[in-house]
Amino acid sequence: MTERIIYHYTNNIISVLSNKELWLTRSVQSNDSLDSRVLMKLFSTYKFSDFIWKCINEEYKKLGLDEIRPLHGFDIFGRLKLIFSQIDNTTLDNMNKFKGNDYSAFFPLYAPFVVCFTNESMKDSRLLFDAYTSNTGCVIGFNKQKLNQVCQELTLKGYSIQMTDIIYDDLEQVDYIKDIISKRISEYYSKCLSPGVVNIDDIKELAPMTASSARFQMADKDNNIVILIEQCLNGVIEYVSTELCKTMPMLKNSFWKEEKETRLISYNTYKDLKNQFNVKHTKSLSIEQRPSKYKDQDNFDFVKLPFMSDAIEEIIIGPCVEEDEVNKIVDLAKLFEVDVFFSNGFEIVVNREG
Question: Largest alpha-carbon pair distance within the chain?
């Protein structure tokens, strides 16, 4: 998207305006049962394992090394799943049935927290007002460049945060994943492998979980590359996985495409992996927890993202907002010096809740 303004639907506009902050929640706690899981479904459908072996052998060829055949019992897909949830010894297979509160069990290295926006064509959408605010909320129009500046400033301070458009088409998703896989494998082997020698120090930096294993530490360059081939493969899978983990909240099923979603994504960690794996990990925003209004969740996890007053461009009051709240919103909008509009459905849609 090239829109100057992006639009956020919310039932908490008073809090957003008063505190000048957005709440980002775990992508796996959204209303989409496949949110952040599409990648694994694609791995089940498309032969990414074959593509990974192909990319690995291309790097071996560049180094003048013999091509390697897929190792017997080396399940790339299985190892990807373990990497994503390795810290807590769980696998993504449990996620669709997971109803508990400890969402830290999934993607602990780069746990994605998201806040969602749409474009101008959906800024007064009956569909989105109903689905995300039960017609009692509002829409805040944010200056996209101003929010991107927030992301850039946090990135410079060591946080991992970005804004991106959602990819809905499965073929586009496949191409996007292949591009990541190819680039990461090339980066890994250019740093970690040379004819006859495995550069263990580089692997420790790029793949700290693999390098921490006792089996890996027992080996050194004198053991020859043949002895270390499996450890090298473990390392490259970890290096690819950490980047693929970041793509998970960017991919959604095509059912949702009419929402035309842009996401601001913040990657945070529940645990201090820096000490556990001696890894140069990015900083994490403070993760907080509140009771959830949904029956299948006792709590929801979130992080707060502050923004400047000039990031807000306009406000749209939803179809069924009560008069008292309208007055409060109008008063707060004056502080931001932004225009307030009313939805085309204002006082037309009947609120039948309760």
Answer: 78
How far is 270 from 105, CA to CA, in rounded Å? 9
pTM of the model: 0.83
From first to last of its 354 residues, what are the pLDDT tens digits of the chain? 467 999 999 999 999 999 999 999 988 788 888 888 888 788 878 888 889 889 988 887 887 767 777 665 566 666 666 655 543 444 444 444 444 444 445 555 678 899 999 999 999 999 999 999 999 999 999 999 999 999 999 999 999 999 999 999 999 999 999 999 999 999 888 877 655 555 656 666 666 555 555 444 434 444 444 445 666 777 788 788 878 888 889 999 999 999 999 999 998 876 654 444 444 556 888 888 887 776 666 677 899 999 999 999 999 999 999 999 999 999 999 999 999 999 999 989 887 664
Q: How many Å apart are CA 276 and CA 237, to the nearest integer?
A: 19
Looking up tokens 């790029």 gives: 206
Cβ atoms of 248 and 272 closer than 8 Å: no
* Cα three-residue angle 306-310-314, rounded to 5 degrees: 105
| Residue in the structure block whose two tokens are 């009419």 | 258
Phi/psi at 164 (5° precision): -150, 155
Half-sphere exposure of 302 (CA within 13 A, CB side): 15
Q: Which helix (H) or strand (E) holds 77?
A: helix 76-85
For residue 246, what are the contacts with CB-CB under 8 A and spacing of at least 6?
110, 112, 160, 265, 267
